[in-house]
Amino acid sequence: MKELSGKTVFITGGAECIGFHVGRALAGEGMRLMLADIDTEQLDKAVQTLKGEGFEVEGAGCDVALRSDLEAAAEKTEQTFGKVHMVINNAGVSVIGSQQRISEENWRWVIDVNLMGVVYGTQVFTPYIQSHGEGGHIINVASMAGMKGFGLAGPYSATKAAVISLSETWRDELQPQGIDVSVMCPAFIKSRIYDSARNRQQRYGGPIYFEEQIKKKPHLAGQKDNVVNGIDTEIAGRRFVEAIKTDEFYIFTHPHYKTVVDGRYEELKKGFTDASNSPHLKGVEKTGGFMG
User: Fold this and answer.
1) Which tens digit of pLDDT belongs to each residue from 180-238?
2) Facing residues of 200 across strands?
3) What per-residue confidence (pLDDT) applies to 291?
4) What Å distances lie between residue 110 and 3, 35, 37, 201, CA to CA?
5) d(Cα 85, Cα 144) in Å, to the nearest integer?
6) Residue 223 pLDDT
7) pLDDT for 286
């Protein structure tokens, strides 16, 4: 979508951090914003801030783990602005711990928000974009953790990897319909994701506050340090707009993390080389297409 002015974007997790600053950058290009967030108090502040800056923006309280909330938000967006052209599935949460210690309720929470929230957002909004025939864009916010999983972040890494794979799949499905798909894979950007459990819903066990956690486990403070020392969210917002205008599929914000992807690629190549050298596979007929 090279022409943004006068079009409408819906952003989950839009009350602060990446969602807010991406929204502000898009509003600067003339887009109308519907910000959605589970934290309605912070959402109201975000909407008033951007209105005060002269932008056309409204807010919708939304728990992305509930399809019904996204359906209601989609209806509100269409009623408010008439059309929807862009959807940014940005809302995300994280939990840190070894694979033996992360509870099932935390697994369910991270999967429902990070993965199913993206699924619901895309399924609910795609018909709205298709309806006006002007094309559109769906952008899913994943992470470098989806490119290469790292220890103590199993649920987060797994869901972000799934979001990348889904984005690749949906790109093939939706481009013939005039809907572009991109996936943003940032590394550390200033945010409060280290404290995302402050908004954990009661059905997953209720809120947990980071500052209370580190009183009991001081070693967890490093989680916050990594994030608050990341790049400024304003920079991420400008980078996002640049990438959308140039139709980038993989949107990276930390180019030096290429070494992470290179390392994974080398491991993959070795795996194929080992398979090629396996005596058990000699003479096996090469059949099938991409999916074998």
Assistant:
1) 999 999 999 999 999 999 999 999 999 999 999 888 888 778 889 999 999 999 999 99
2) none
3) 58
4) 34, 21, 16, 11
5) 27
6) 83
7) 85
Residue 143 lies in a domain: yes
Beta-sheet strand order (sheet of 57-61): 57-61, 32-37, 8-12, 86-89, 136-141, 179-185, 250-252
Cα–Cα distance between 148 and 160 in angstroms, integer? 10
Q: Does 13 have pLDDT greater than 90?
A: yes
- H-run or E-run covering 265: helix 258-276
pLDDT digits (tens, 9 = 90+) for 72-128: 999 999 999 999 999 999 999 999 999 999 999 999 999 999 999 999 999 999 999
User: What's the DSSP call for residue 187?
Assistant: -
Classify residue 272: in a domain, yes or no. Answer: no
DSSP state of 182: E
Q: What is the 3-state secondary structure (H, E, C) of 34-80?
A: EEEECCHHHHHHHHHHHHHCCCCEEEEECCCCCHHHHHHHHHHHHHH
- The number of distinct structural domains making up the chain is 1
Please tell me the distance from the alpha carbon of residue 70 to that of residue 36, in angstroms, as a whole number.
Answer: 9
What's the DSSP call for residue 199? G
Any domain includes 271: no
Q: How many CB atoms lie within 10 A of CB 197?
A: 20
209 is catalytic: no
Read off the CATH number of the domain in which 112 is found. 3.40.50.720
Query: Does the global pTM surpass 0.90?
Result: yes
Q: Is residue 283 part of a domain?
A: no
User: Annotated catalytic residue: which of 120, 128, 156, 194?
Assistant: 156
Q: What is the DSSP letter of 210?
A: H
Range of the domain at 136: 8-256
> Which residues have C-beta within 8 Å of that of residue 194, sequence separation ≥ 6?
94, 210, 223, 224, 226, 227
